[in-house]
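Human: You know discrete backbone vocabularies at least as well as I do. Show me how you would write down a chain together with its backbone fold. No explanation is needed for now; the record alone will do.

Assistant:
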Amino acid sequence: MATEPVGAGKGKTVRTLIVVPVIHTSADLGSLAKDVTDRGVADLGEYVWEKHQATVETFWDAISVYFDSIDVSGMKIYQDGMIADGAVGRRIVEEIAKSGSRNYELVARLLRRGAILVKTEDFKLVKEERDRLVALTQARSLVQRITAYIKYKLVKDRLLRKRDNFIAKSIDESLGHGETGILFIGAYHNIKKRLEKNICVKEIKDTRKVKEYQTLLPFCNKYKRRFEKLGEYLISKPEGNGLATE
């Protein structure tokens, strides 16, 4: 398991954050799922796309087995895209879990075992990014696709920075001294450098490798050996007990 303590200074009570770099399944994408699947099959071919989907499913199997083996009672749950907590947040989790999302199925199980859901993101920022993605995936003509891509490219980095800042602030304000949180976050986010110094980070999977796998997916035939090696890493069993220490 990749471990990266983030400057746990002397004399401070360390807060622990277990990070799960997320790979989304089709069920996570809601109304975007069909367009993304169709585009994936068209770009990669049906065999490669189905193999990728199988890798993602096995990745979540490994992550789920890991969390089933530890006591999560009282841990704070931070979820990429989660805009509410309390009863509303739990209802969102349950509804998305019912659609088949492996990520949300796991979060739902953790909540039933005593973990606590925390509002992680700002609704306006999440909606703005989703609206851009909808325009991009649903563009039919070449002109529409190019226009949507340019518009998304212009705001993508700014939106990601704003979301990361909001997520880091949410964690800092809600994760108490000596407490442990679990963050489910897309691999393209960069949260760690924005966290306070007394938050110690443990990664269930190396975020850099998860990001590299997703980056190489469109070029998997060109970089076949590296891509297959990364796929093997994704489905391997996480090591250690996932609890950071000072």
Summary: Residues 1-11, 241-246 have pLDDT under 50 and may be disordered.
